[in-house]
Amino acid sequence: MTALTSADVPRLPRGVRIRFDPVRNAHVLLAPERAFDLDETAVAVLNLVDGQRTVGTIVDELTAAFDADRAVIEGDVIEMLGDLVAKRVVER
Hints:
The protein is of the alpha+beta class. It has helices at 40-46, 55-66, 70-86, and strands spanning 17-21, 26-31, 34-37.
């Protein structure tokens, strides 16, 4: 499998969703028979994963929202989403 690029359009597959867990007082990514704890950064990224936006567009929106270095954000987003693709909780 090749690495994600800024042209890829990530989406959450059927049955995978983000939810706030009041018991944990945190957001989680729920997948069939699995749950992943999410930090604030992961929530910000995954809230933009809609099957419409490219990785590049997601990076642009995060760069504007957080006024941070685009290259750093792009590397982090590609790494995070690539890891979630490998775990089969994000599709491209």
